[in-house]
Amino acid sequence: MAAHNELGKQGEYLARLFLLKKGYEILETNWTVGKAEVDLIARKRGVIIFVEVKTRQNSVFGYPEEGVTAKKEKLMMEAAVFYTREIGHEGEIRFDIIAITIEPDMEIRHFRDAFFPVW
Fold this sequence. Notes:
single chain, Trna Endonuclease, Chain: A, domain 1, 5-stranded mixed sheet, 2 helices, 31% helix, alpha+beta
């Protein structure tokens, strides 16, 4: 497996631990439908949260959250529609980003409501 794939898996693991410690329930990991993949789907207080995890070794080339493109947002929104219909959820949903920088000191930043769907 390529080094960037290993870094991504490490980041997703750290993000899961982070969310669990904050009281989130993890519903799905690496959930896919069509061309869309959602790194984590979680629930807290009845809200379904679709989470994109971005991990970088350091911030030399920018912050991890800057890597979430408009295309990725659109795919996550499409996945959210499918997922919520599949499980029969008619309540609130949210799109978050968890950005992880490994060096020089590991930092995890959680961006709640990182973007809003344009239906």
